[in-house]
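User: Fold this; tokens only.

Assistant: Input:
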Amino acid sequence: MPEWCPKCNAMLPPGSRKCPVCGAKLPSSPGDQTSNKEIFWFSAYIIGLALIPLLIALGIGILCILFFR
């Protein structure tokens, strides 16, 4: 099955790591392409999971200071 350059759509020779037409670097396998958008949302998700317990603890601490003086 022929492979095509994602940048210029040129037909690629088997096993190439670089497009012979435009010089674009090619991923070593189809699953290697990860977009910046995917990385951003994954990072935001992980940071959100870490911040939620901290915000809950901060809220409880503020409520304890306000109501149990």
